[in-house]
Design goal:
There is one protein chain. The protein is of the alpha+beta class and 289 residues long. The chain folds into 3 domains: 3-61 and 202-233, Pseudouridine synthase (2-Layer Sandwich), CATH 3.30.2350.10; 64-200, 2-Layer Sandwich (Pseudouridine synthase); 238-287. The protein has 8 helices and 18 strands. The chain is globular, with a radius of gyration of 22 Å.
Length: 289
C-alpha cells in the first residue's frame, strides 16, 4: 500500500493517534504524517503510507492555510482557550473595532520573528518545551523566522465575541502565537479559541476523509482513497528527464544533469515511469524507484 491519505483530523486526537489508528485499519506499519496538529485542532492531516513516507521531509515546504477563531481580552498560559487563564481583560476591549485589529494584523504579515508557545513540541537541549512547562521550569524559548503570507478577517461580530480569520503561512508558524502577539500589540491580550487547517501541500479539507468513515472501511477500500506519490510534491517545480537522463538518475550517475541549468532548490524529478525522485540542484536527494 503506497500513497497519501488526506485525513480530516477530528478534535481530541493527536496526530500520532491518527497514525496509530490507520496502522490498525490497514495493517501497514510504514505510515507517517506531515505538519503536526495540536489535539484540539482539526483539519487536513496528510498521512503518508508505504513508499510515500520517503517524501515527508519535502511536503512541509508548501504553504499552509488555517481558519482560526481569536478571543480578544483573554490571556492563557498555552495561548489558546484550553489553557489556564492568566489575565481576563475582556471588558477593556469594548472600544476596539475591526479596523483596529486589521491594522495590527497587517504588521504580523511577511517574514517575521515569532516566539513559539512554551506549551509546544519544540525541543531545547533535547527536551520538549511543554515538558519544561509542565514541570514549572523556565527555559529560554528560541525565536523562529517564519513567513505569514496573508491574514484576513472572515467574520467579525464585535470585540466581545471571537472573530474568525484565515491565515496562509509557512511551516513552523504558530497560529496561537499570532493571536497572542495581536493581543500584546492591542494591549488587551488575546488567545486562539479554535483552529482548522483547511489546506496544505495541495490537499484540501473539502476532499479529506473522515476518520469515523475510515473505521468502517476495509483495507482495500482505504487503499482506493490514496492519492499517488506525485500529489505529495505538486508544490515543487517538475523536472522531466529523457530516457537516458532517467537511467543515469536512477543509477546515481552524476552525469544525469550535466546539460540542465538547475537552480539550488528542490525539484520533483519525472521520467516516462512517473515520479523518479527528488533532486536539489544538480545533486540527487532521493531516488524512489
Amino acid at each position: 500500500m503506497n500513497g497519501i491519505l488526506n485525513l480530516n483530523k477530528p478534535a481530541g486526537y493527536t496526530s500520532f493517534d491518527c497514525v496509530a489508528i490507520l496502522r490498525r485499519l490497514t495493517g501497514e506499519r510504514k505510515i507517517g504524517h506531515t505538519g503536526t496538529l495540536d489535539p484540539q485542532a482539526t483539519g487536513v492531516l496528510p498521512l503518508c503510507i508505504g513508499k510515500a513516507t520517503r517524501l515527508l521531509e519535502y511536503m512541509d515546504e508548501a504553504p499552509k492555510t488555517y481558519v482560526a477563531d481569536c478571543q480578544l481580552g483573554l490571556t492563557t498560559d498555552t495561548r489558546d482557550i484550553w489553557g489556564t487563564v492568566l489575565c481576563n481583560r475582556r471588558p477593556e476591549t469594548a472600544d476596539l473595532t475591526r479596523e483596529n485589529v486589521e491594522e495590527v494584523l497587517r504588521t504580523l504579515e511577511g517574514e517575521i520573528e515569532q516566539k513559539p508557545p512554551v506549551f509546544s513540541a519544540i525541543k531545547v537541549n533535547g527536551k520538549k518545551l511543554y515538558e519544561y512547562a509542565r514541570e514549572g521550569k523556565a527555559v529560554e524559548v528560541p525565536v523562529r523566522r517564519v513567513t505569514v503570507h496573508s491574514i484576513r478577517i472572515l467574520a467579525w461580530n464585535g470585540p466581545s465575541e471571537p472573530f474568525k480569520m484565515e491565515i496562509v503561512c509557512s511551516r513552523g508558524t504558530y497560529i496561537r502565537s499570532i493571536c497572542h502577539d495581536l493581543g500584546e500589540a492591542l494591549g488587551c491580550g488575546a488567545c486562539m479559541s479554535s483552529l482548522v487547517r483547511t489546506e496544505t501541500c495541495g490537499y484540501k479539507i473539502e476532499e479529506a476523509a473522515d476518520l469515523e468513515e475510515l473505521r468502517r472501511m476495509t483495507p482495500e477500500q482505504i487503499e482506493a482513497l490514496l492519492d499517488p506519490l506525485e500529489s505529495a510534491v505538486s508544490h515543487l517545480p517538475h523536472l522531466d528527464l529523457t530516457e537516458e537522463q532517467a537511467k543515469l538518475f536512477l543509477n546515481g550517475n552524476p552525469l544525469w544533469s550535466e546539460e540542465l541549468p538547475l537552480e539550488e532548490r528542490n525539484y520533483a524529478v519525472f521520467g516516462d515511469d512517473g515520479l523518479l525522485g527528488i533532486c536539489k540542484g544538480h545533486l540527487i536527494s532521493k531516488v524512489l524507484k
